[in-house]
Amino acid sequence: MKTTTIHSFKSILSLLLIVAGLSCQKLDEKPEGISTPANFYGTPEQCEAAYAGSMNALYATWGGYQNGYQFPDGQYEGASLDIGITAFNEIWTIHYKAIANVNGVLKAIKAGSLEGNAEEVINNVIAQGRFLRAFNYFYLVRLYGKIPYLTEDTPDPVSTPLTPESRLEIAAVYDLIEADLMFASQHLGDYDGAIPGRPNKWIAKGFLAKVYLTRATAPLNQTENYAKARDMANDVIENGPYILLPGFQDVFKTSNNRNMEIMFAFYESPQTPYMPGNVWAPSEMDGWSSGPVKILWATDIYPEQPRKHSYLLLDFTSNIYDPAAPIINWSESADGVPYIGKYNIPNLTFEQQVGGGDAGIEMKILRFADILLIYAEAANIANGGPTQLAVDRLNMIIDRANAGTGTEPKATLAMSQSEFDQKVIDERSFELCFENDRYFDVLRKRILEEVNLPDNAQGYDENDYLLPIPALDAKAIGQNPGYE
Prior knowledge:
By secondary structure, the chain is mainly α. The protein has a domain at 277-361. The protein is built from 17 helices and 9 strands. The strands form 4 sheets. It has a two-stranded antiparallel ribbon. Strands 4-9 form a two-stranded antiparallel ribbon. Strands 5-8 form a two-stranded antiparallel sheet.
C-alpha cells in the first residue's frame, strides 16, 4: 500500500469535518459532495491511504518503532527492570492511535462507503483493516494484559468514556485477534511484489501461527494451541512464497530490502524517511551510540559463528573516515560496548552510515526465519518431543548461521522435549535479536528475571511482566498491578 502520514491524514479529515459542519447548519437538504467519515473512504485507495497512516503512527522519524524500544530483554546494555510509571507509555498511545485510524475506515465501509465495488474488493479492504487492527492489539495484549478492544462498533470513547469493565480478559482479547486474523487470511490476496506494504494472506497466517504459539505459553498456557501453531506455520512454509535466504549476510542489507525472507516490515514514506545510519553506530564510526548491546550476552552467550559477527558489531574501524585506520575490538572502543550489526556497515553503504540522512534501514516485523522457529517450537511440544521435521527446520537456521565454520551445535532428534525447547528459544534470541521480538519471548517463557541477571534485575517482581498504562487512561480503566 502507498504510505502517508497520520498527521497529514488527520489534518485533512479534521478540515473536511469542520467544513461539513459549517455547510450543513442552515440547509434542509442533504448536500452532495460533502466529505464525512461515512463517505470520505469512497474508494479502496482512500481506505488504504488511511491504513498506511495507521502504520506511520507506529513508525515515525525519531519516534515509535523506528527509534527502537530498549526493552529489558537481556540483549540491550543498560536496560533495567526498574520500570517506572511512565516507562514505554508511548507504545500504548501509538497503537491505540493506529487502531483509531483503522476503525474509522471499517466504520465507514460498514456504513456503505464502498458500495458499488465488487464484494471481493470490499472484503479485501476490510481484511486489510482487520489484519492491522489485530496486529496492533497483539502487541498491546502481550505488553499490557487486560485491555479495551475497540472496534468500529464501539461507542465514541469521548462521549461514552471507558471504564474498568472495558478491559477484556486476556483470553477474550486473543479470541478477537484470532477472529480478525482469520478473516484476513481468508480474504486477503496472495503475495504481490508490486505492493510490498500491503498485507497478504500469508502474512496473516504467519501472525496467526505466532498468536497460537503465544496463547500456548504464559500467561494463558493454553497448550492445545501448540498444534494450531504448528499447522499454521507449516502451511506458510509449505505453500507460501517466502524463503530462508541462503546467506544471513544478505537479509539486512539496505540494497536488498524487501527480499523474500522479509514477510512484513515498516516501510518508509516521503513524510517518514528512515533514521540516519549513524544513530546506531559507535563513536569511532561517527555514531550517536544508540542501541548498545549487553556485553555478557554478546561475549558469553551468543555462540561463536559468522552470523554473530554480522548481527553484532564487535570489531570495527577505529576511524571511519580513514580507510587505513586499524580495526579495533569493542573492548578497546571509546564507548566500551558492542553495537547492533544489523543496522550498520556492511549492511549500510558508507554514505548511508555517515551521511546523517535517510539510511534505508527497514525495521523487520515478521521474517520467514521466525515461521521456521515457530514450527520447530510448536511441533516439539505438540508431539511430546522433537520431530525430524522440527529438527531439520531448526537446523536450517543453525547451518546458515555457522556458514561452515561456526561452533554452534546443531539440534538432534535425541534431545528431550525440554532440551529442544530451550534450543529453539535460544535460537530465536540469536536469529531475531533487535527486531522487537525477543522481549515477547521473554514474557511468554517467563524468564524476565533470568535474562536480566546478574546486573539488571534490581527491583524485579512478577508485576514487571506487564507495563504501566499511561496515567490519564489508567484513571478511567484502572492501572496494572505494581504501578498504582
